[in-house]
Description:
By secondary structure, chain A is α/β, with parallel strands linked by helices. Chain A contains 14 helices and 17 strands. Chain A has a 7-stranded mixed beta sheet, with helices on both faces. Chain B is α+β, with helices and mostly antiparallel strands. Chain B has one domain (7-139): Alpha-Beta Complex (Sufe protein. Chain: A). Residues 97-99, 127, 129-130, 175, 179, 204, 206-207, 227, 368 of chain A line the site of pyridoxal-5'-phosphate.
Amino acid sequence: METEGTYDVQAIRAQFPILSRKVKGKDLVYLDNAATAQKPLAVIDALVHYYSHYNANIHRGLHTLADEATAAYEASRTAVKDFVGASSPDEIIFTKGTTDSINLVAHSWGKSFLQEGDEIIITSLEHHANIVPWQMIAAEKKAILRVIPIDDNGILDMEAFKAMLGPKTKFVSVIHVSNALGIINPVEEIIRLAHEQHAVVLVDGAQSSVHLDIDVQTLGCDFYVFSGHKIYGPTGVGVLYGRRDLLESMPPYQGGGEMIKEVRFEYTTYNELPFKFEAGTPNIADVIALKAGIDFINSIGKPAIRKHEEMLLEYATAQLKDISGLRIIGDVKNKVSVISFIIDGVHPQDLAILLDNQGVAVRTGHHCAQPLMHRLGIVGTTRASFAAYNTLEEIDVLTQALNKSLKMLL
Amino acid sequence: MNNPKTIKNIEQDLIDDFSLFETWEEKYEYLIDLGKKLAPLDPAFKTEDRKIKGCQSSVWIHSYTKDGLVHFEGDSDAIIVRGLVGLMIMVLNGQPSKEIVGAPLEFINTIGLSSHLAQTRSNGLRAMIKQMKMDAGVLG
Ligand SMILES: Cc1ncc(COP(=O)(O)O)c(C=O)c1O
């Protein structure tokens, strides 16, 4: 499936209804995939099919609809388990998204295991979702949040990280792939070094899950989290992979139905994994449709998609570098198909408005990584991010639209 | 300087001007041009507490009275928004406080700015107008 020449991008595009719409009278060129990916028809159909044919509450009913819905929901859990290489579906917790997953861990693990003076390490590249929950629990527990510095290209200073590690290090929470710059961090080494100090490691896979082959057992991370909507699945569903012994040692995050074994007014005993962390009626429809997103990726294969995206990245990088005054931020070798750039004398917002009028959707601003922008001394960037369905022609449209915008602005 | 035209007069002039634009490019080139021509605001007035924080850009409005009329100066770090600042100054500058506070400013919809500028950005425009009206109210 990954042999050269067989990547049929038009056949892939045909699976995405939204790609044929117009924006402001122009063909949509969607290059904001790092924010959220578009949905193949299979995902949309899975949602419609669930609500039209077997909508029921899961795990408790004894009727046919409940059986079918429960089976589909649990089939999705198994698909996710395979998607990240976990050893058991019990290690897969469904959440609302990456943010929710990180909050669950910070809250539940932090509450039980953090003590005054303990250290939590994150990186300078983090999304706010992997900063704020740690600040909150650190403040509550009087723990200390430390940040691995980067160089001007966004590369982590691993020597500084090594120097930071010590017996006080209890948790290391790192972004696998930078959403703002696309840089791939050396998480294997980070995990190995952190484990030498018996620290627990969470990998924020919001950006890596869609591009890179993920095997949590090979990586050796303790937690891996991501959002369904960035892997061609629906919004409102995310994943927390956690090592079984860790999840078992952690207290529930929220209380309610589903997560209990037995409730009396005097006491409650909790359900087994994974249900202990899934209180209340879950987001059944979106969880089920998430499997369709994973199936879409598997039908092409991540290596084939990656190869296509790398080709797009290389082409776009060369094109953009020809634009005078344009500087790519995080112009490094080891990255996914994301280009973040600034242009001398041009405010990103002006660029976004003019590109939008030409049908081109890119993201501008701080990308929910204000501390990173601050460190790099910029207010924000313009970011183009590519997915399985993008084409070389679309990059030509981007380049032309950029040139036209600059002519208008400068 | 007293503005001999009323707010309504100026709005009508703008509606007439914009009706000549046939493409989105012309509309935006007009705004960009306005933005470039807007006199820079004295940095002393670009303080943190006077900053109107938009989604991605910032706006500053400096308001004062002269001969009983309200005057505005303004700035933004983004050029199109700067053009919008210039546009609002064109409409509201040198008018009596009461007129500014009560102006419905319907021209914004008529010239198609609200649809051309996406939601968050016209929210920025709204915040800008709110500030100008509030200042006018206080100064009046
Ligand atoms: C690296 C990273 N972490 C966390 C998040 C937050 O994801 P969500 O908003 O889906 O919870 C994102 C999404 O932008 C991200 O890119």
